[in-house]
């Protein structure tokens, strides 16, 4: 049983705030922050007492000094940001849980500029009149994709929602049963369709859908033929799907618009870099759908955004749709998107400067060098008993981009004679900086394809700290 007597000398918040030591802390730290931290420490004392056991009865002075010893860490913890930089050693380049695409230095600078002052976001500096935020990116998107018109919203889910609401509210949308996908984070095509006010008409079967299936399902209520890129899985075996080009021909013949949700559509042709599997936005549009939608922070390697590109007759009305205002892109993302698109004016520059592109395209040999650098750094730091080796493995583009593509890579494989790999993995995850890693074949695997050179010192220090920690 907890003994209430044990807490009888516990000081009050008010009296603690008057003590000399706390007053000194108040010279540097806002009062509200200190009060919060004092309350949390007192609560912890009560919890510990309620936990039972043979506790000591402390004097008021003893409680006060115990509290003061814990207070600095408690204040620091309360002030620490929740959203933190993490070292991604998973080898998954577009890792949705880790914030998808890291931005280029150019994009980061553009965000800082836009964030720290006023800007011509919706102001035509030449004419002195109001203008549209879209103008900062639309021309670049048209140049890079060959589209007649482009619109940009908050993310690709918003882009899909806007297209469906704008083109098909109150009418039918035909989708193959093999493409009724869930992308993750509760983005499900049937749910988005329902929210848009359109009615889903499923055609074909899970594994086989033919052009005739669409054709027979078309009625006077049909507003749109929708094709969805199967971003995060593949169907193999006895399968058949209708290529976008054939669907586009059917749509043109029947006078029904065709839309393709590409998800991870790229600007850069990865096939040229030896990585097959995903069409560029330009190639997708050349197949003939009236409109395509893509994410800004997948293979494009920019900020969270949704790009709608296609025929003028389809895209222009969407810009004036009331939902456009609710789904609009904010100025920081717009700044990052413009800077990212600017890099694409030259493919070689994009490849060198857009982190997602350079990480995916980096040569194995260069990844191996980084892995060796990490091993040397840990060794130079004393090694902490860790056994390290450089081993081949596979990275993945991630982000629902090219699910079938495995990129050869090199990992630093780690074990420790006294610390289980699960324990090492957890310590790294909870460390500073936090490190996300994988476990495979009884070893902790650090895939350095997704680790930047500048992160190596932090990663080595985190490894040494994880191995050295005693508990
Ligand atoms: C990722 C993805 C989405 C969602 O895009 P967000 O930018 O995350 O909103 C929609 N459709 C497909 C096919 C995707 O791959």
Counted by DSSP, the helix tally is: 19
- Estimate the global geometry from the Cα principal axes: globular
Q: How far apart are the termini?
A: 28 Å
Named once each, the bound ligands are: pyridoxal-5'-phosphate
Number of strands: 18
CATH class of the largest domain: Alpha Beta
Main attributes of the structure:
471 residues; alpha/beta; Aspartate Aminotransferase, domain 1; Aspartate Aminotransferase, domain 2; 3 domains; 7-stranded mixed β-sheet; 5-stranded mixed β-sheet; 18 strands; binds pyridoxal-5'-phosphate
Detailed description of the structure:
This protein has 471 residues and is of the alpha/beta class. The chain has 3 domains: 4-79, no CATH class; 87-96 and 360-468, Alpha-Beta Complex (Aspartate Aminotransferase, domain 1), CATH 3.90.1150; 105-353, Type I PLP-dependent aspartate aminotransferase-like (Major domain) (Aspartate Aminotransferase, domain 2), CATH 3.40.640.10. The protein is 42% helix and 18% strand. The protein has helices spanning 13-18, 20-26, 31-50, 60-79, 105-116, 138-145, 156-168, 189-196, 211-217, 244-254, 281-286, 312-319, 322-326, 331-343, 347-353, 355-361, 364-380, 421-429, 456-468, and strands at residues 87-88, 92-94, 123-124, 129-130, 149-153, 172-176, 182-184, 187-188, 199-203, 222-228, 258-263, 291-295, 306-310, 387-398, 407-415, 435-436, 438-440, 443-447. The strands form 5 sheets. Strands 5-13-12-11-10-6-9 form a 7-stranded mixed beta sheet, with helices on both faces. Strands 2-14-15-18-17 form a 5-stranded mixed beta sheet. α10 links the parallel β10 (222-228) and β11 (258-263). α5 runs antiparallel to α14, α7 packs across α8 (189-196) and α15 (347-353) packs across α16. The mean pLDDT is 92. The protein binds pyridoxal-5'-phosphate (PLP). Pyridoxal-5'-phosphate is lined by residues 155-157, 160, 183, 187, 228-229, 231, 261, 263-264, 295, 306, 400.
């Amino acid at each position: 049983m907890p003994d209430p007597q044990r807490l009888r000398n516990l000081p009050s918040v008010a009296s603690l705030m008057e003590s000399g030591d706390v007053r000194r802390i108040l010279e540097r730290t806002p009062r509200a922050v200190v009060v919060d931290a004092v309350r949390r420490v007192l609560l912890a004392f009560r919890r510990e007492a309620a936990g039972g056991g043979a506790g000591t009865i402390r004097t008021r002075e003893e409680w006060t000094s115990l509290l003061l010893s814990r207070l600095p860490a408690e204040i620091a913890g309360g002030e620490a940001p929740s959203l933190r930089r993490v070292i991604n050693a998973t080898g998954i380049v577009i890792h949705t849980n880790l914030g998808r695409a890291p931005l280029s230095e150019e994009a980061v600078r553009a965000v800082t500029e836009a964030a720290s002052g006023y800007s011509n976001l919706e102001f035509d500096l030449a004419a002195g009149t109001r203008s549209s935020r879209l103008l900062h990116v639309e021309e670049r998107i048209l140049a890079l994709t060959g589209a007649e018109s482009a619109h940009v919203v908050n993310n690709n889910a918003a882009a899909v929602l806007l297209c469906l609401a704008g083109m098909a509210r109150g009418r039918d949308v035909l989708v193959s049963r093999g493409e009724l996908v869930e992308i993750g984070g509760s983005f499900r095509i049937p749910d988005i369709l329902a929210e848009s006010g359109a009615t889903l008409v499923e055609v074909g079967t899970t594994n086989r859908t033919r052009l005739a299936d669409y054709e027979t399902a078309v009625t006077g209520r049909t507003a749109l033929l929708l094709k969805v890129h199967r971003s995060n899985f593949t169907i193999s075996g006895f399968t058949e799907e209708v290529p976008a080009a054939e669907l586009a021909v059917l749509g043109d013949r029947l006078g029904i618009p065709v839309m393709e949700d590409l998800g991870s559509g790229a600007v850069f042709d990865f096939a040229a870099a030896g990585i097959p599997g995903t069409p560029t936005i330009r190639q997708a549009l050349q197949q003939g759908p009236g409109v395509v939608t893509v994410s800004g922070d997948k293979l494009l390697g920019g900020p969270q955004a949704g790009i709608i590109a296609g025929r003028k007759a389809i895209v222009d009305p969407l810009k004036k749709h009331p939902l456009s205002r609710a789904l609009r892109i904010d100025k920081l993302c717009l700044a990052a998107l413009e800077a990212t698109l600017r890099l694409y004016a030259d493919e070689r520059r994009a490849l060198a400067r857009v982190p997602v592109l350079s990480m995916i395209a980096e040569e194995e040999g260069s990844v191996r060098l980084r892995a060796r650098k990490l091993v040397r750094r840990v060794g130079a730091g004393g090694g902490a008993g860790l056994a390290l080796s450089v081993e081949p493995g596979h990275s993945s583009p991630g982000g629902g981009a090219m699910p079938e593509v495995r990129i050869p890579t090199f990992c630093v494989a780690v074990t420790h004679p006294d610390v289980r790999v699960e324990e090492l993995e957890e310590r790294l995850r909870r460390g500073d900086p936090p490190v996300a890693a994988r476990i495979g074949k009884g070893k902790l695997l650090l895939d350095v394809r997704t680790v930047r050179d500048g992160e190596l010192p932090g990663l080595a220090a985190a490894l040494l700290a994880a191995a050295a920690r005693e508990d």
